[in-house]
Amino acid sequence: MIKIRIKNADHEIDIRFPISESELFAKLGEIHAVEGRDAAQSALVTDVYWPEEFSMLKDRFANLDELNYLGKRMESFDTLEYDQFLIGISKLDSKDVKDLINLTFNLNHFTLCQDVSSYGKIGREYVLNTEGAVPAHDEDDPKYATIGKDLIDRGLAQITERGLLIYNPFDELEEVYDGHTFPEYYYNNSLLSLNAEYGGRTELLQLPDEALAIKKAIDRLGAPSAEDCSYTVTFHNFKGDDWLARVQEIIAKEGIYETNAMLKALDVEGMDWSKLSAVVELVDVQKASNIAFLAEHLDEFSFIPEAKTEEDVGHFLVDNISEYRLNLEMEDYFDFSGFGEHIAEEHDGQFVDGGFIYYDSYESLDELLDGLDPEDEGMNMGGI
């Protein structure tokens, strides 16, 4: 979306945005632009490759974190929104990166019409852009022709290379970004989204994320540390309220960084949340590192949903596991309940909320549990 060249002393390097925090840090390291992870993320821009409308940034210092956020915003644009944004740049009095970020939240001020065959089409496109929606199949409503003609008569339309632009220069753009904390923007499809708050300011965290991204957000809030912030969940992809409550407790007891590390282990395709809940209940752990450890070893457990008795366990295994399958003629004589009891004893099985869980590996459960950290109450690392 954005490509520039930056310079530090005699060293230069190209950067494309958006970029991950670790990649950005590595790029800055290549030109010796940082002495530590707390160094300010700003640099002298020596060239702008694209978009060419960003040429005003050349030979100026730019905040790279702002450019990265702007790149994420631009990445979400469709073709029309991208054209609106580029046209909008030409109408800005001030063209700092801060202003460009705010422009991305004000595209409704710049209506672009490709079909200008009638006043009605112009008017309807204007209403769609400024209000966000129009009723379906009402193209022939005469009100749109009235609106379109009024816009033309007022001199608010001008022809551009990207279409007919409807723009009122006297409409003030809303300042969404204040130059301190980034406005709420859901860039990733994350497991957990929450607002970190300190001193009346908020920053959206989408977890799991790079630890450096979290630290930068805390720094923008002006908080002395992550422990000084409060956290409010805005969205989550957990299956079941038990996981939301569990994660909130971990944030309160262990802090945001430990929570983030755990969520990295849980953020895998096809995560079986019911099975993980069962394993956590079986082993009886609450600590983030231990939950992450169990998630990484989840394939070593087997879960039988909705099993309530040993007989249920026996029937499920015989019916679904090839090594336990019986000849149909023998099923009337088989002790399913006794078989279920045997599995529970030999494989550390236990009935839990939602079914039956047991350890299904060549080594013993005790050997696996040697990898767990000691469970303790931990320190209170920030409220939620």
The neighbouring-strand order within the major sheet is: 2-1-3-4
Largest sheet: 4 strands, antiparallel
Give the SSE string: EEHEEHHHEHHEEEEHEHHHHEHHEEH
Structurally, the number of domains stands at: 4
Computed structural class: alpha+beta
Strand content: 15-25%
> Distance between the terminal alpha carbons, to the nearest Å?
36 Å
Number of strands: 13
Average pLDDT over all residues: 93
Query: How many alpha or pi helices?
Result: 14
Task: Please summarize what this structure is.
The chain is 39% helix and 19% strand.
Secondary structure blueprint with pairings:
Elements: E1 2-8, E2 11-17, H1 21-30, E3 42-50, E4 60-63, H2 64-75, H3 79-91, H4 97-104, E5 111-113, H5 119-131, H6 142-153, E6 157-160, E7 163-166, E8 192-198, E9 201-207, H7 211-221, E10 230-236, H8 241-254, H9 256-266, H10 273-283, H11 288-296, E11 301-305, H12 310-320, H13 336-346, E12 350-352, E13 355-359, H14 365-369
Antiparallel strand pairs: 1-2, 1-3, 3-4, 5-7, 6-7, 8-9, 8-10, 11-13, 12-13
Helix pairs in contact: 2-4, 5-6, 8-9, 9-11, 12-13
